Structure formats: C-alpha cells, structure tokens
Amino acid sequence: MFYSLRIIFAGTPYFAACHLNALMHTKHNLIGVLTQPDRPAGQRNRFTLSPVKQLAEKYNVPVFQPFSLQTFEVQRCLAELNADILIVVAYSMILPKAILDIPKLGCINVHGSLLPRWRGAAPIQRALLSGDQITGVTIIKMDAGIDTGPVLYRTICPIQPDDTSASLSTKLAIIGSNALLTTLELFISGNITAEPQNNELISYASKINKEEARIDWSLSAIQIERCIRAFNPWPISYFIISGHYIRVWAARVNKQLQTAGDFLPGTIFAVDKDGIHITTGDGILTLTKLQPDSKKVMSVQELLNSRSEWFIPGMVLV
C-alpha cells in the first residue's frame, strides 16, 4: 500500500508545467523530470529553457533532457530512480516499451481531449477547428500505441464561442491538474479502474503547421473564424494585402451585413469603426484585431488611423 508516490514527470510546454506545479504542492516525491533538450529560439537563436525545466530547477528536482529514449544508458538511468509511476504531459517523445515497463504502477498520460476523440499532437486546436462544443481531459494508462491506452479518468470542459487555443489550454491545464491529483489518489487507495477506449469513435489531431495559418477566403466565415481562434496563440492566422503581411488575432462572423451581387472571396466589402468586413465563401467575416508585420497587436481602428490606404473597399486579400 502506498501513502505517497515516487514520481518521474515528463513534459515540456507551459501546459505540462501547470501539472508539474500541482504535483510540487502534494505529498508525492518528485524524483526526476524529463523534458525536451534546450533549443535555440527567437531572432538571436538563444537557447531557452522549457517551462517544465524552469519549474523543476526552481524546486531543485533533477532534470534529464535526452535526445532519445531508445538508448540503454537512458533507460538504465531512469530504472535506477526506482519510480512508482511516470507521468507524461505534452512531452512530445514516444516512450519505448522498455521505459513503459520500468515504473511499478506503469506510465500514465494526461491528454487534452475526450479520448478516443482527437488522439495525437494537436487535440485542442483540432477541437476548435471542428466546432466541437465540448472537450476535456483524459488520463490513460500508457501502452505501446499513441494515445491508445485504457482510460483511468475523464473530465469534461465546455468550449465557449470565444475560446481560443490559449484560453482553452488554460482551462484544460486547471482541470487536468485536478484530474491528475485525483487519479493518483485512486492509485493509492487501490480504487483505480481502466476502461478500454471505444475504437469506433476515433479521430486524429494531426500536428499544426504554419501553412494552415494562411487564411483561405473560399472557406465559410464560420470556418475561418474557427481557424483564427484555433491558431491563437500559434501560428496565428494571416493574410497578405498589397504585399503587407497581416496577422489576425480576432474576428467575428457578421450576421447583419448582406452582400448584393457577386464578390470574390476575400474582397473588402466595407470598412467602419466596427471592423473590416470581408466576403468569404459563405458569409461576411469582420476583422477586429490585427497585427501588421513587425508591429504590435492593435484594434482595427488603430490600424486604420495609420494605414487606411491598405483597406479600401473592393480590394482583395490573398
């Protein structure tokens, strides 16, 4: 019978750091943290520490940053930690069977969707892109597949009409952290159960790439608005007008404006204090918060005050 658990934690981004922070304030013993190797970032290519590494170092938890988990040396090092359980949250490395078999209670994964919906790398973004009304967090017992293991715990989170990937990720980090602590208590009490996933409900959340962020004006206003929310804070939806690269941080489907006649998708239909109104494959999309290249994020009115010549009705965005 366990009272507290010896835990290895594996994760990299802020979402994972929220879960690690929750564990730091429990009775459990964090004996090691796995995170991605430091990588150069920004215009100066300076090496930056992942949010998980920064937090682990703050609490003096040993950090391991292997480039591969396949080597005998790495596997031996982890085995010597004598962990009860290994917890994975957005680590972005596949754990080989040799590591899955090391902890006494196995390895568990905290995943930001209601598995088996949205297995894969980008569950939060894909849920928003698809117009899902609910999502959640699923904790699974890891096996050799990707997000295929049996479900140990699941909690639901409604998706609000104005949710972005940033806001939804914050919500899921909070409920995921609570779900993780509950799951660990179930392990300790011996009341944990595992439920196989329903393979008839599988969908896959492929990794987001920068090319997806360029707005396709032939899509409906509803779908483009979803893209803008899903790609906030990365990679940020954008369009090009008169050679200028413009990121879109916020927009809304405009149900009041109606077009008269035929317009190419991407045509500036009207410009006023409420926004820049663009025709799409179906409906009008109103842009409300934009960011010109190398400038700050600003309201449409702020941008029009200095660059009104970029947004003349009849011009076509690409």
UniProtKB/TrEMBL annotation:
It catalyses: L-methionyl-tRNA(fMet) + (6R)-10-formyltetrahydrofolate = N-formyl-L-methionyl-tRNA(fMet) + (6S)-5,6,7,8-tetrahydrofolate + H(+). Residues 207-307 form the Formyl transferase C-terminal domain. It comes from the Bacteria. Keywords: Protein biosynthesis, Transferase. It holds the Pfam family Formyl_trans_N. It is an enzyme of class 2 (transferase). Residues 6-183 form the Formyl transferase N-terminal domain. GO terms for molecular function: methionyl-tRNA formyltransferase activity. One of its GO terms (cellular component) is cytosol. The keyword RNA-binding does not apply. Attaches a formyl group to the free amino group of methionyl-tRNA(fMet). The formyl group appears to play a dual role in the initiator identity of N-formylmethionyl-tRNA by promoting its recognition by IF2 and preventing the misappropriation of this tRNA by the elongation apparatus. NCBIfam families: fmt. This is Methionyl-tRNA formyltransferase.
